[in-house]
Amino acid sequence: MNIVYLLDTNILSEPLKPVPDPGVIERLHRNDGMMAIPSIVWHELLFGVNRMPLGARERRLRAYLLDVVAPTFPVLAYDDHAAWIHATFRSRLEAAGTLQGFADGLIAAIALANNLILVTRNTQDFDTVPDLYLENWFEGAEPGTDLPQPRQ
Fold first, then answer.
1. pLDDT tens-digit series, residues 122-137
2. Angle between helices 80-95 and 102-113 (to 10 degrees)
3. Which residue in 8, 9, 14, 147 has its CB near the most CB atoms, within 10 A?
């Protein structure tokens, strides 16, 4: 299958919640083999578990990352093409007086460089990025997320 979706941290973390959102879980199953993660998200997840005190929770999260996430989701790098895209939209946003979180900009650039739909609960963090396709898989998300439109 072809990769269609790039998953943000909040999507990958959802299955570990005591009561995961059924919309996210259903979409993760339905889109099996069509999802990847950006290297920045992989870093965020690993950094988070590495900061945790040793114990049952840390072992459970580490096992999830190594036994589920790593073999299931390809990790896409922030490469020279993504850097070009990121520098371009970041400079334009800054010139317009709009600030973009740096890590969010890296994630968006990887999605754009690979022509992927970014899946996140925090769509507002990416609304300013031009031409970025976004989806929110959480139940109760705004309708129309199955037919993404580029953000202008």
1. 999 999 999 999 999 9
2. 130
3. 8
